[in-house]
Amino acid sequence: MEEKRVATLDLGNGKKPTEFPVMSGSAGPDVIDIRTLHAKTGMFTYDPGFVSTASCRSNITFIDGDKGMLLYRGYPIEQLAEQCDFMEVCYLLMNAELPTANQKVLFDKTIHGHSMVHEQLARFYTGFRRDAHPMAVMVGVVGALSAFYHEAMDISDASHRELSAFRLIAKLPTITAMAYKYNIGQPFVYPHNDLSYAANFMHMMFSTPAEEYRPNLILAKALDRILILHADHEQNASTSTVRLAGSSGANPFACISAGIACLWGPAHGGANEACLSMLEEIGDESRINQYIKRAKDKNDDFRMMGFGHRVYKNFDPRAKLMRETCHEVLGEMGLEDDPLFKLALKLEKIALEDEYFISKKLYPNVDFYSGIVQRALGIPVSMFTAIFAMARTAGWIAQWSEMISDPEYKLGRPRQLYNGASVRRVTPIELRK
Ligand code: CMC
User: Fold this and answer.
1) Where exactly are the structural domains of the chain?
2) pLDDT tens, 202-240?
3) Average pLDDT over all residues of the chain
4) Buried-most residue among 133, 193, 245, 260 (CB within 10 A)?
5) In this structure, what are the phi and psi dihedrals at residue 294, rounded to the nearest 5 degrees?
6) Would you state the CATH architecture of domain 6-54?
7) What is the pTM of this model?
8) Residue 367 annotated as catalytic
């Protein structure tokens, strides 16, 4: 039998050191189980940004940042991106196994069966300004889904959780495309269930009643790859937000809406949009060095968007795959000489050879390339993060469901190191200075 390991904490206060169990997962660093820390010592841990904290146990996604490894349910992202489609990946995230051919047919059919949204939901859009950011619309509309499905909102019932997952995965492309159509003043396009998930999304984005639109299969495959690469990423900020919101027992639509709000931030899912805006701002190869200089300047807030990652410190495996797709798509579209693409390649080369970027382990991340691919697909920059949200919904809902069914699940309630005023008396208003 394996010996139980413990970590000993000596607070240097003359008291007997306290022991805490050390737990091992199937991969990744061991963790010190400090659940009894406060009871045993009266102290909390201090870890802003959760850089050393495992907030949960999870069987879904594993990242080894040093090796540049990303696994969904044990499968390397490279194999999934090359051999599976996004529906298989959704099935895998939800069910822990890849589907058989028959299971895949049934899953596709189920998702297709939920792809439409209630007509009443379409009216919500008119409450937004036409120029609203699609993410602002998504936060509202996805949260509003909870007003439509009262019959299946018992989160302790696994079949209700599964139905909510189907609904969310199926409706996100429809809701996302509707946000775009509303923004440009075109009529909403209904989903087409003969098409794949990615091709159907392109159909809802780009077809109009006036003209038939046939999605280019190479481009639909590129979009499918974007969805696979963004489907889950362990306990990142938005996933942790979904879990924290869900820990109070909130309904899944509200939780996913919270995840979308978090993803919107430029340090997270907003990075591909920010990266493309940055490339447009740089504008010309002759100005790259000026921006590299700014990125290094401690007194300048500017960061090179699309570079660096909290976890990947050698390379982002998703970036490698997205870079490949980027070249394929630009070739298919005849855009190899596109000035922005050439500028991006030049920036990538200069940054990869620069001492500052090397020493701080700042490599291009997935969003450096995914923005360029999406632009080539004809997707406007303001929609980039919304597409990320569409993909990540699969991971969020799988993580949420895992949390709810975990017997160790508790309401999330971090503590703090309080630095404010100590207790004091209220002075009557007429005496205050
Ligand atoms: N440009 C210039 N300097 C940078 C950058 C950058 N993009 N990223 C980090 N640094 C520097 C930072 O200034 C700091 O320097 P110092 O040690 O001198 O203070 C050092 O590198 C470490 O930075 P940090 O912010 O402590 O590291 P982090 O692990 O918290 O940051 C990050 C990760 C993604 C927030 C950051 O690299 C960043 O802001 N990158 C740009 C935004 C971006 O592309 N985000 C997308 C991430 S991929 C999508 C996803 O998975 O969500």
Assistant:
1) 6-54, 66-405
2) 999 999 999 888 899 999 999 999 999 999 999 999 999
3) 94
4) 260
5) -65, -40
6) Single Sheet (2.20)
7) 0.92
8) yes
